[in-house]
Structure formats: structure tokens, C-alpha cells
Specification:
The complex is a heterotrimer of chains A (about 270), B (about 600) and C (about 230). Chain A is mainly α and about 270 residues long. Chain A contains 11 helices and 2 strands, in the order ααααββααααααα. Chain A has one domain. Helix content of chain A is about 70%, strand content about 5%. Among the domains of chain B are: about 210 residues, no CATH class; about 180 residues, P-loop containing nucleotide triphosphate hydrolases (Rossmann fold), CATH 3.40.50. Chain B is built from 22 helices and 16 strands. In chain B, helix 3 packs across helix 9. Chain B starts with a helix and ends in a 6-residue tail after the last helix. The C terminus of chain B is likely disordered. Chain C has about 230 residues and is of the alpha/beta class. Chain C has a domain of about 120 residues: Rossmann fold (3-Layer(aba) Sandwich). In chain C, the strands form 2 sheets. A 6-stranded mixed sheet of chain C has the order 6-7-8-3-9-10, with helices on both faces. Chain C has a 4-stranded antiparallel sheet with strand order 2-1-4-5, covered by helices on one side. In chain C, strand 4 and strand 5 form a beta hairpin. The radius of gyration of chain C is 17 Å and the shape is globular. The chains are: A mainly alpha (about 270), B alpha/beta (about 600), C alpha/beta (about 230). Chains in contact: A-B, A-C, B-C. At the A-B interface, helix 4, helix 9 and helix 11 of A face helix 5, helix 10 and helix 12 of B.
Chain lengths: ~270, ~600, ~230
């Protein structure tokens, strides 16, 4: 369930034609910035906001210096974004040290569900994730901005010929994506263990989700959902370590069957 | 580069290498114990970097799971020399030098087999891309690390430890490490300077073209990956024997990408770059690890990003250029190559028999019907021109003739040795049988020189030598002539990417001819050429067909060119044959004039 | 719109495909560029619009030098482009494709009505994915989208290619009407000479990246000159 939150929020939008392995880095920045704010006594949601802003800032910087120059070189983008996440990890270690950190959930009450007391915070997160995905879907499908984004994703030169400033569009979507990742990272802080390698275990599934998505946003959502569900299901029957391995294996095979992405076979 | 200057270059490089070698050999006498230990590890890592450079820098296969092969080597040694108790901890260490040797060899074999399996899975698939390989190897790394932790025989969380071969002391291990590096570099240099090295680079630069010249690219990639894995496992085995440690991080994603960082920063495709990169970075990180470990890693990360973005070839090439190009085994210009004309008997016999027969061929791209029932025959030794308006299907038809895996209706049959059916035959299979296509826009190997391209083309899919570096390249007389007439012979050692457009087209044609095809498929051979250049091409084609019995099918828009050369002309329109006859008949045809000047004839 | 191009040169990689081209299109003028395939016509258009880097040359719109402007800004001055290949978004619906045309210009609600009046076949297919339309329908969509933004200059690349004669006549009619009603300038590249002769004020013949010949169809002997050069050179 939680992976749904993570993948669904953190990966969407940040991936216009960019194979972005830095998302885990943005999530880490988000959670650590929120952490720092919380430890200074700021209220939870404010801390989350700060985390989001920090990630967005980093995203803007990364886009300007690195990503923008690599649009024509996808494999190098892969390497460079991975480099970014490495740098983020090291930066965090320098500032915060190696050890695990934590900060508390904003509310600890439980909600009785199916005979078990389910933590309210987690339910909130799940609901928020679902809502966010829905909102995103609406924006993408029905608003002019979403249309522009889809056009640039499908065919950038043609979009330019129609008067769209593709550079600006890519910049904005990348920053939005990193902000979203920061938000997801911060908001998951209370639940996940926080350490400098926060979310790096998500790198492989994230990468796979992108490839499985093909070039469509709905594909991205579908792929993230499939992988998240698969991991959760496998975790139930195998231990978590094997579960990741199996998920990755499944994804690799799926990619073979749907080389253009999960949504393509219909077209 | 003239002979003398090249020789001086070689001398300078060899001297430098010898000096470095001497320094390396003497080092243990001068350094302290810890430094010697560090260098030993650094040498092993450098050998590992060489193996990745061969696979990635030279052949273009981004193996993001390279650490797994290294780990496998170390694991093999660990497993064979330790006994693991019930709680997963190492209980005993046993085995003499022989066991270690056997273990290393077994590790290499296992890694090679595993890599071959992974490679076969990745490369045998039609839709395979560089990403797919990267992703699968990444998955292998992730899965490998995860699986390691779960098994008892690997030592699980703790790994295996304490099984280093104690009969050798630190200094001895230093020399072993040095020898390993020397071996790796030696193999690397031999391979990359050989004709096979050219093929590796060709696969990296333009895989599709390599296929069209008849090379079994998929098999080759699997072999290269397996070879690289074996070399990595060798390094891993030595590591295991020297250090006596193996645990899950050795297999993991982080270490894999560490290797990529060494190769990227040092300089992919230079061999020496990754070696220096690995040694320098490992050395620095070990020393700095004591004082500023995290700042150092941060710096490395930033340097990595900077290199990828701004200097994608790595740091060695520009530095090397600064030091007067003292790179080893890179795209180093060796002594100049020359062409040797091979007399080829002109085949006058068999003229008139059918080389290719197309019957009712249809083809569609998705819902777009491109070819609607094309029937024509191409006879041996004739020069047949295919003309027609844009979108008529000419290029598609030509591509289809050269590739039996494209799904089509109708049938195509050949009259060549070795192949008569077309359906299902891959591009490289058809090329090896003598059907070779020249692309419309030049599709060359950027880093290969003119001579090197012709050399590869000449092989027509046969495996080039793994050690020999051919200097005098035997090509058919027609190719020598073409090079002479077009001026290519003054640029034999110039990389294809640096040639002006006209010469690129000429090289494109020369390479196709060098493969000495029985059926030559030329897609707009004169596009973008000057009048002079067209004349040259026309001359060569005429001789190929009339005097040397090659069969030529070509697409053209220049009607004068067609007029002078063609034995027969076929006009294609809307995916069907509009007219088929001699040049005169076509010129006089009313329907053809209408098709060129007016609206499409109502069907 | 007044468009002036001088000394335009462009190419791919090391090669130069078009060299030193000069061209003028005045307000309400229709200028056609003809020539056989592979001669550089599409390269010319792409370089003109900045979709391909220019090696040399100057472009001016209404007297103002726009050579340094990026494509999307140039286009927003009132240019609509209908390319030869990859002109529509196959994965988007017809309606979304048309909407894409509104981005570059004023458009307005009447633009929709006009577009659908001109091409009624599209009206019934608004929610259909553009990639599933036939070749001819895709051309129509291309043209409709180009007209949506009420451009002052229409740049068309082989828009009649593969269309049936009645369709070609319709396109010509639409263009003529737009020219009369709104003073639309048109720069059209078309290998099909006959279609273009009815419409163009001036015809330029391109050969191997250069303009070889310029004629006004109304001048006696012009058609013959053009036909001759087109086939025999």
C-alpha cells in the first residue's frame, strides 16, 4: 500500500523523456529537510512544506545544470541522475551523519478496520495518494496544461512548431516532479526508517516502472500500480528481500512482453 | 599519419609504458605495508575496470550489474575453501594453492555461463535496446545482492571471511595483482587493436549497419558480455584469494556503479583511462577515507556528474591529447593502412537468370498499406532502377528485400547460393548470402576510419581475427577504383564522422561494394552529390554490372542518371508497379509523365 | 504577413543540403516551391522555421529580423506549419490535435466552427484517436489545425501528397478562399505541379538545394518552362 503512495506520487511528472534515477535523492532531500524543520520545533505540516520546497529547489538546480544538457543523450541522463542521487546521499551523510533518524507522526490515533486498529496516519496517506493520482489524472487529461505536457512528451519538435516553449515545459514538469518526490519523502518520514539511503531501494522498481510505462502518463500510473501491488503481494508470501527480487524479475519479463509500455498493446 | 611519425609515437608510448612498468615493479621496495596493500587492491579493481571498459566502452553494452561477475569469482574461491557452520558463520578454512586455482577457474566459468544466459535473454529479442540491457543487468545486480543475503552457503549477512591464501605474503600478492592487471591490459590491448576490436567498435557505433554487413551481432554481444564477465570473475577470484572476504555488497548495485564511475571518469574506450581512474580513485578514497571520507565521495559524485555532462569521453582523452596523444589501445591511429586490389573474376556466366523474384508482395506499417502487390524480377548482372514519387514504397520495398523478418504478404525468392527463400531470414543472414543494402542516408561507423570500415565490410559477416591487425586490406578492384576516383584514398585513416558528406556517401557505397554482394540494393546512391561525384558513381556501377556480373537494384530520382545506366526501369506508385520496361519505353510513357507532373491517376 | 529570407543555408552533419536561398512572400501572396524529391524542400522549410539549425542566413517577418528567435516564438507571430511527416499527435484525439493549433494564435470560438465547416468529415470524429484516421483524413486534420490559429502565414509541406483529386481540389479551394477572405499568405512546397499552378502567384523550382527558376504561372510560357525543368533536369 505504501509503495503505491511512493511510486504514484514520486515518479509521475518528473519523467518527461528523462530516465530519472534521482527521484530517490529528491525524496531523501524532502524527508531530511522536513526532519531538520521538525527538530527545530516546527509543526509537522509546515515541516513537510519545507521539505517539498527544498526538493523543488534542488530539482530546479539539477534541471538547469544537468538535465537540460542531456535531453538528446538518454543513457547519459541515466548515469547523471544516478550521480545526483549519489551526491545527495553523500551530502546528507555529511550534514546529518550516517545514523537513522526519526520524527513522529502528527497524530497517533487508530481507526478500527476489519477488526484491527489501523493507524489513522497511514489511512490518510493512502487516501491522499489516491486523491493525488486522481487529481493528476484530471489535470493531465482535461486541462490545457496537461495537453501541452502530453504533446511535448509525444513529440517535442512538433510542439515547438506549434508555439510551445518546450524548454520551459520540461523545466516546470521536472521541478514539479521533484517537488512531488520531496513531498512523498517527507510525508512518509514517520513511517519509513529514515537513513541516508532513504528510498534507494526504490531505484530499480522506479526505473522499471518508467520503462514499463512507455511514453504515456497513464502507463506510468498503471505501471507503478502494478509494481506496487506485486511487491505488496509478494511480501506476503516471501520475505521482503525476495519480494523485491521477484518484483524486479516480473517487471523485466513484462517489459519483454510489452516493449512499448503497458498501454501500447491496445493501440 | 606517416610511417615515421607513427613509429616515433609508438616508441614514445612504449617507453612511457616501460617506465611505468618498472616503477610498478619496484614500488614494494619503496612503499610502506599499507600502501602496498592498497595498491594490490587498486590493481585488482583496475583489472575489473578494464573488463567493463571492454564490454561498455568498446562494445557499447552498458552492464550495470558488472559487480555480480566479480563477486561470483570471489564467491567461488570462498565457497571452495571454507566450511560454513550451522549458524552461518565460517568454521574452517582449507585447501592448498591448487584448490584456489581451480576455484578461480570455476568462478570464471560460472560467471561466463551466467552472463551468456543474461546476454542471450537481452540480445536475442528483436525489440532490445541499450536500456533493456542496462535494466536487466541492473536487475541482476539487485537480485543477486538480495539472494546472497538469504542463502546460508554464501554466509548470508556476514559473508565468508578469512579464507585468504596465507602462503603468499603482502609483497607476493602485490606482484600477483600487478600481473593480473598486466594480463587484463594485455588481453585488452590485443583485442582492441585487432580486427576484432574494430568489430566491437562497429557494434557500439552502429549496430544496425553491422548487421547489414552480415555480422551476427546478437551472438557477438553475448560472447563479449560473457568474456567480460569471465575477466571480471578472474579479478574477483584473485581478490578473494588475496583478501579473503566476500559479502553481499560485492555483488550489489552500489559497487556496480562504482565500476561504471571509474570507467566513465577515466575515459570509456581507452583501457588506460579506466585503469588510471580506478587506481587513482581507490587510492585517493582510501587515504582520504581516514580523514574526509564523505566529502571525498561527494566530490567523486560531483566529478562523475560533471564528466558525464561535459566530458562524456572521460578525462583521459583530453589529458592524453594534452600530452600528445599518448593513449594506449584507444582509437589510436596505428601505422597507416593501405588498400590492396584483389583481382575478381568477372562473372559473365549465368547472365539472365533470375536473382530475385517478387510475386504480389504486400506490406503494411500498422494500418498504412505501403505495398499493394508488387511483382517484378531482377535478373543476374542487370542494373534495374526503381523510380517513382515519394511515398510510392520504393525504400520500403528495398528494405523488405534485405530483411526477411519484416512481415509481408506475397513471396520473394532468390537465385543465390545458400539461400533461396526470403521469409524469416534475418538481415545478417541475407547479407552473408550476398544481399546487401546501401542506406539512403549515410549510416557509418563514426569512430572507424575509411580503411577500417572497408576492412570490416570485406569480411561480410565472417569473424575477424582476434589478434591480428591487418594493415594491407584486400578489396575488390572496383573498391580501389571508387576510392581513387572519389578521393577517398587520400583519407584512408580519417574516421568516418570527420568526412564531408560527399565522401561519406562514397564510403557508404564503397563499403557496400567491398562486401562483394551478389545482389546490391542501393537506396539513392547519388543523393546530395555533385555532378562530378555522380559521374564517378555511375562509372563504378556500370562496371560492376557490365564487367563484373554484379546485380544492382537501385532507387533514384535523377532521371539523367537513370537514363545513362539502367538496363531496365520499374516505376512504382502508391505501392504498386506502374510500368516496367526499358528506359526508352518508360520515358515515352504517357502514364509516367502524368504521374510525375500531375495528380495521381485515379485508381 | 511579409516574410523575407536571405542567404539561408542549412544541412545535416557535415553536409550542406540547401545553400544561399532567397525568398519573399508578401501579404496575401501564394508562393510555391516545387522540385523533385530529395532536392531539399523540406530541409528548407525546417531551417526557415528554426527546427533545423541554420548555417547562415537571415529571416525577417514584417520587416523585423527574427533570425535569432527560437521556433516557438517565431511561430507565435502568426505562422502555422503543416509538416510532411509526423505532423499530428497519433496518440491524442482529433479534438486535442485541433486544440493544439490554438496555441500559436488568437483563434477564438469561430475558429472551431470554421474548421469543422471546411472539413465536415472531422466533425464526427472528434473523440477518435488521430492515429486511427486514414492518410487523407490525417492531412485534413493537419490543415484544419493549421487554420485554427488564424495564421497570417501558412507553411505547407506536401499537403496534397497521396490525396485523391477531388480532395486536392478542395484543399486548393480552401486556400484560395482563406487568401481572399483574410489575406492569408501561403508558402507551399509541393512536388505536384498541376495542383500548384492553379493557386500560386509565384513558383520557384528547387534543385539540389538551390532555387533554379522563378516564374509566375500567369506569364505565357511559364508552365512549359517549369514542366520542362521539373522532368528533365
Amino acid at each position: 500500500m505504501l509503495l503505491l503512495v511512493v511510486l504514484g506520487l514520486g515518479i509521475v511528472l518528473g519523467l518527461m523523456d528523462v530516465i530519472n534515477l534521482a527521484q530517490s535523492g529528491f525524496m531523501a532531500v524532502g524527508v531530511y529537510a522536513a526532519l531538520a524543520a521538525a527538530h527545530r520545533g516546527l509543526e509537522f505540516w509546515l515541516a513537510v512544506l519545507i521539505g517539498t520546497a527544498a526538493s523543488a529547489l534542488l530539482g530546479a538546480l539539477a534541471e538547469l545544470v544537468v538535465i537540460r544538457r542531456l535531453y538528446a543523450r538518454p543513457l547519459d541522463t541515466l548515469l547523471a541522475t544516478w550521480g545526483i542521487s549519489l551526491v545527495v546521499v553523500e551530502g546528507i551523510i555529511i550534514v546529518f551523519g550516517h545514523g537513522p533518524q526519526s520524527f513522529d507522526e502528527p497524530f497517533v490515533s487508530g481507526v478500527p478496520m476489519l477488526g484491527v486498529l489501523y493507524p489513522a496516519y497511514r489511512l490518510l496517506l493512502v487516501a491522499a495518494a489516491a486523491l493525488a493520482v486522481a487529481v493528476l489524472a484530471v489535470i493531465v487529461r482535461f486541462t490545457p496544461w496537461g495537453l501541452v505536457a502530453r504533446m511535448v512528451m509525444a513529440n517535442a519538435p512538433l510542439s515547438r512548431a506549434l508555439g510551445i516553449d518546450t524548454v520551459r515545459v520540461r523545466q516546470v514538469t521536472f521541478v514539479l516532479g521533484s517537488a512531488l518526490a520531496g513531498f512523498a519523502g517527507a510525508v512518509l518520514g514517520p513511517i519509513q526508517g529514515i537513513d541516508p539511503y532513504y528510498a534507494t531501494s526504490l531505484v530499480a522498481p522506479a526505473f522499471l516502472a518508467v520503462l514499463l510505462a512507455g511514453r504515456s502518463l497513464s502507463g506510468l500510473v498503471l505501471a507503478s500500480a502494478v509494481l506496487a501491488v506485486a511487491t505488496t503481494v509478494f511480501s506476503r508470501y516471501f520475505n521482503p528481500v525476495y519480494a523485491t527480487a521477484v518484483t524486479v524479475g516480473v517487471a523485466v519479463v513484462l517489459l519483454r512482453v510489452f516493449p512499448q509500455g503497458l498501454t501500447r498493446w491496445r493501440g | 599519419m606517416t610511417g615515421r611519425r607513427a613509429d616515433r609515437h609508438l616508441l614514445a608510448r612504449s617507453t612511457l609504458l616501460a617506465a611505468a612498468g618498472v616503477a610498478a615493479v619496484l614500488a614494494p621496495l619503496l612503499g610502506d605495508r599499507y600502501t602496498v596493500y592498497l595498491l594490490t587492491q587498486a590493481f585488482i579493481y583496475a583489472a575489473l575496470a578494464v573488463s567493463l571498459d571492454l564490454v561498455w566502452g568498446y562494445a557499447g553494452i552498458l552492464d550495470l550489474g558488472h559487480a555480480v561477475w566479480f563477486g561470483a569469482g570471489a564467491l567461488a574461491v570462498g565457497v571452495m575453501t571454507t566450511t560454513v557452520g550451522r549458524d552461518g558463520m565460517v568454521v574452517a578454512v582449507h585447501g592448498g594453492a591448487g584448490t584456489y586455482l581451480v576455484a578461480i577457474l570455476l568462478g570464471m566459468a560460472a560467471a561466463a555461463v551466467a552472463a551468456a544466459v543474461v546476454g542471450a535473454y537481452c540480445f536475442s529479442w528483436r525489440g532490445s535496446t541499450r536500456f533493456y540491457v542496462a535494466i536487466v543487468t541492473l536487475a541482476v545486480s539487485v537480485v543477486g545482492e538480495a539472494l546472497y543475503l538469504e542463502q546460508r552457503w554464501t554466509g548470508g549477512d556476514n559473508g565468508l571471511f578469512g579464507f585468504q591464501l596465507r602462503q603468499l605474503d603482502r609483497v607476493a600478492w602485490y606482484y600477483v595483482g600487478l600481473a593480473l592487471l598486466g594480463l587484463a591490459l594485455g588481453i585488452g590491448i590485443l583485442l582492441t587493436r585487432s580486427d576484432f576490436g574494430l568489430l566491437m567498435r562497429a557494434i557500439r557505433d552502429n549496430e544496425v549497419r553491422a548487421r547489414h554487413l552480415g555480422f551476427r551481432v546478437d551472438h557477438l554481444k553475448v560472447a563479449i558480455l560473457a568474456g567480460g564477465a569471465a575477466l571480471a570473475a578472474l579479478a574477483g577470484g584473485v581478490y578473494g584469494a588475496a583478501v579473503g572476504l566476500v559479502s553481499s555488497p560485492l555483488f550489489g548495485f552500489l559497487f556496480s556503479t562504482q565500476i561504471v564511475v571509474w570507467v566513465a571518469i577515466g575515459g570509456r574506450g581507452t583501457l588506460l583511462g579506466p585503469v588510471l581512474g580506478a587506481i587513482a580513485l581507490e587510492f585517493a578514497s582510501s587515504s582520504l577515507d581516514r580523514s574526509f571520507p564523505d566529502q571525498w565521495q561527494l566530490l567523486v559524485g560531483l566529478a562523475f556528474i560533471a564528466v558525464v555532462v561535459f566530458v562524456p569521453d572521460g578525462l583521459l582523452p583530453p589529458l592524453g591529447r594534452l600530452l600528445e596523444r599518448l593513449t594506449l589501445g584507444g582509437e589510436g591511429r596505428g601505422p597507416a593502412r593501405s588498400l590492396l586490389p584483389l583481382p575478381v573474376r568477372g562473372r559473365a556466366d549465368g547472365e539472365g537468370e533470375v536473382m530475385a523474384a517478387l510475386a504480389d508482395v504486400t506490406f503494411a506499417y500498422g494500418s498504412l498499406q505501403v505495398l499493394r502487390g508488387v511483382s517484378l524480377e531482377v535478373r543476374r548482372s542487370e542494373l534495374l532502377c526503381l523510380i517513382g514519387p515519394n511515398g510510392a514504397g520504393k525504400s520500403t520495398l528495398m528494405a523488405l528485400i534485405g530483411d526477411g523478418t519484416m512481415r509481408h504478404g506475397g513471396s520473394i525468392r532468390f537465385g543465390l547460393h545458400g539461400v533461396d527463400t526470403h521469409r524469416g531470414r534475418t538481415v545478417d543472414r541475407l547479407a552473408r548470402s550476398g544481399v546487401i543494402r546501401k542506406f539512403q542516408t549515410p549510416s557509418l561507423f563514426e569512430s572507424l576510419t575509411v580503411a577500417e570500415t572497408l576492412l570490416l565490410a570485406r569480411h561480410r559477416g565472417r569473424l575477424p581475427s582476434l589478434w591480428r591487425r591487418t594493415r594491407r586490406i584486400e578489396v575488390p578492384g572496383a573498391v580501389v577504383e571508387l576510392c581513387h576516383l572519389s578521393g577517398l584514398d587520400r583519407h584512408l585513416d580519417v574516421p568516418a564522422a570527420a568526412l564531408p558528406h560527399g565522401l561519406q556517401q562514397a564510403l557508404e557505397l564503397a563499403a557496400t561494394v567491398a562486401a562483394w554482394p551478389d545482389l546490391l540494393l542501393l537506396d539513392e546512391p547519388t543523393a546530395g552529390l555533385t555532378v562530378q561525384e555522380r559521374r564517378v558513381v555511375g562509372e563504378v556501377l556500370r562496371r560492376l554490372s557490365r564487367e563484373q556480373g554484379r546485380t544492382i537494384l537501385l532507387i533514384e530520382h535523377d532521371l539523367d542518371f537513370v537514363d545513362e545506366l539502367a538496363d531496365r526501369v520499374v516505376v512504382l506508385q502508391d505501392g504498386g508497379v506502374l510500368a516496367d520496361g526499358s528506359t526508352d519505353e518508360i520515358k515515352r510513357s504517357e502514364r509516367v509523365r502524368w504521374s510525375y507532373l500531375g495528380v495521381s491517376t485515379p485508381s | 504577413m511579409r516574410l523575407e529570407v536571405s542567404g539561408l543555408s542549412a544541412g545535416y552533419g557535415a553536409s550542406l543540403v540547401v545553400a544561399e536561398l532567397d525568398l519573399r512572400v508578401g501579404p496575401g501572396e501564394v508562393v510555391a516551391v516545387i522540385g523533385r524529391n530529395g532536392m531539399g524542400k523540406t530541409t528548407f522549410l525546417r531551417a526557415l522555421l528554426g527546427l533545423l539549425p541554420r548555417r547562415a542566413g537571415r529571416v525577417a517577418v514584417d520587416g523585423r529580423d527574427v533570425t535569432a528567435e527560437p521556433t516557438h516564438r517565431l511561430v507565435r507571430r502568426g505562422i502555422a506549419y503543416a509538416p510532411q511527416e509526423a505532423g499530428i499527435f497519433g496518440g491524442l484525439t482529433v479534438e486535442e490535435n485541433l486544440r493544439g493549433g490554438l496555441l500559436a494564435g488568437p483563434g477564438g470560438p469561430s475558429a472551431w466552427r470554421e474548421a469543422l465547416d471546411l472539413f465536415p468529415q472531422l466533425a464526427g470524429r472528434l473523440r477518435q484517436r488521430a492515429g486511427t484516421l486514414s492518410g487523407g483524413e490525417q492531412r485534413m486534420l493537419l490543415l484544419a489545425r493549421a487554420l485554427m490559429s488564424r495564421p497570417r502565414l501558412l507553411v505547407l509541406d506536401e499537403v496534397c501528397d497521396g490525396l485523391h483529386p477531388p480532395m486536392v481540389a478542395r484543399v486548393v479551394e480552401v486556400l484560395r478562399e482563406q487568401r481572399e477572405r483574410r489575406g492569408l499568405s501561403v508558402l507551399i512546397v509541393e512536388p505536384n505541379l498541376r495542383a500548384v499552378l492553379d493557386l500560386a502567384d509565384r513558383v520557384l523550382l528547387m534543385k539540389r538545394g538551390r532555387f533554379l527558376l522563378e516564374r509566375s504561372p500567369s506569364t505565357p510560357g511559364a508552365r512549359e518552362d517549369l514542366e520542362h525543368e521539373l522532368v528533365f533536369s
